[in-house]
Every structure is written in structure tokens, then in C-alpha cells.
Design brief:
Structural class: alpha/beta
Shape: globular
Strand order of the largest sheet: 2-1-3-4
Number of strands: 4
Helix content: 55-70%
Largest sheet: 4 strands, mixed
Number of helices: 7
Length: 223
């Protein structure tokens, strides 16, 4: 697996990759938990597709609100996709800005993973409690959107925690410098409209079609 160390501001970096987001096929040897997670992934993929392709003029207010929430949650999924993908690999390559030393770049990756492991474990516990509490709303007519929301968060934090743990404890890392990422660092402090074409060009060079959207969300200032 390839993980990019993307500069998003002065001394600030984020881990980034573009693994496929299509749900994978089930296997006969999958355990109960994995089958349930796969089922949730398939259902979520279908929900996001429906929200992105819906025609607003033909939807009621509640449906439009739900679609907007789903699209926003889908953006948060994009930010966790790297950690999710790291659950499966035993080796990974860090592609880092060429103006950094390899040792420093990998130290940044290690700190980021350690921080992510603590963060997602904490929220995994919190969201598990909130999900159980949301079950009290089962008596309310209609779909339990609050329970769905916390179920989504619970699964997301669990997968992210597992990915960070795998990457720290079991993954063998190598490093490779990338001049295009060094060029990206100088754009983080520019307003979005001034940097847009250059960020697009860097994303095209790296063959990362989602990089521009990620950089716009993460880099500061974005106005």
C-alpha cells in the first residue's frame, strides 16, 4: 500500500491514500463480525450513491436533509479511508515531500498513527455507549436516524482504530521522496482560488483524482 504524507500547513501533515471505496465481496470463511461490517459497507455505499444522485426537486424536506447529512458523512469517510485500508496490509510505502529527510518523514507518520489510535479508541467507546442509548428511540415511529448515525460512527472509529494499530504494530514501512509533495507544501497558505489550478496539476501528476478535494478540506487557509 502507498501512503502519501501530505503537507497541509506550516509543519502540519496528514496521511492520505486513494484505495478503492467499492465494497469487496463476501467470502465463505468470513467471521460473523466481518460479515456484518461488510453488510454495513454495502448498505452505506448504496445510501451514498442514492444521496449523490437524488434530484432535490423531487424530494421532501426531510429527504433532502437526510441526503445532505449522508453526503457530509461521506466526506468524513474519505478522511478515514487511509486508516481503514491499512487494516489489511503487512507492508506500506510512505511517499513524502522531497524537502524532508526520510527519518523525519517516518517519525511524522508514526506520531500521526499513534494519535489516530488513541483518538479513535476514545470515540469508539463513546459512540458505542451512545449507540446503545439510542436504542431507547426504537419506540418512536419511523426510522431511527439517530441510531443509524451512531452506528455509522461506531463502525468508522472501529475500522480506523484497527488500521492505526495494524500500521504501528505489524506493518513494515519503506520511504520514497516526491518533489510534487514539496511543491504542494508552499500552496497550503494560499487562498483556495489562487492555488486551485496548481493543486489540480499536482494531483494529476500524482494520479490522485481526489487529492484536490482532500487538500481543500484539510489545508489552511481554505478561503
Amino acid at each position: 500500500m502507498v501512503v502519501y504524507l501530505v503537507p497541509i500547513g506550516r509543519g502540519r501533515f496528514e496521511l492520505y491514500s486513494e484505495p478503492p471505496d467499492e465494497p469487496s465481496h463476501a467470502h465463505a470463511r468470513d467471521g460473523f463480525l466481518r460479515r456484518q461490517l461488510r453488510r454495513v459497507a454495502v448498505r452505506w455505499h448504496d445510501t451514498v450513491h442514492a444521496a449523490r444522485t437524488a434530484e432535490p426537486g423531487r424530494r421532501g424536506r426531510l429527504a433532502r436533509w437526510r441526503d445532505a447529512l449522508v453526503r457530509r458523512l461521506a466526506e468524513s469517510v474519505a478522511e478515514q479511508r487511509t486508516l481503514w485500508a491499512l487494516r489489511h496490509g503487512s507492508s506500506a510505502t510512505t511517499i513524502y515531500p522531497a524537502d524532508l529527510e526520510a527519518v523525519r518523514a517516518q517519525a511524522i507518520v508514526t506520531r500521526s498513527l499513534a494519535r489516530a489510535r488513541r483518538y479513535h479508541l476514545r470515540w469508539l467507546v463513546v459512540d458505542a455507549l451512545l449507540f446503545m442509548a439510542s436504542g431507547l428511540l426504537v419506540l418512536v415511529p419511523g426510522p431511527n436516524l439517530i441510531a443509524y448515525y451512531f452506528a455509522f460512527r461506531l463502525v468508522g472509529h472501529y475500522l480506523s482504530w484497527r488500521g492505526a494499530r495494524q500500521a504501528m504494530d505489524r506493518t513494515t514501512w519503506s520511504q520514497r521522496p516526491e518533489p510534487a509533495l514539496a511543491a504542494l507544501a508552499s500552496l497550503a497558505e494560499l487562498p483556495r482560488d489562487l492555488r486551485a489550478s496548481r493543486v489540480d496539476a499536482i494531483a494529476a501528476t500524482l494520479k490522485l483524482p481526489r487529492l484536490t478535494a482532500f487538500f481543500d478540506r484539510a489545508a489552511v487557509p481554505a478561503a
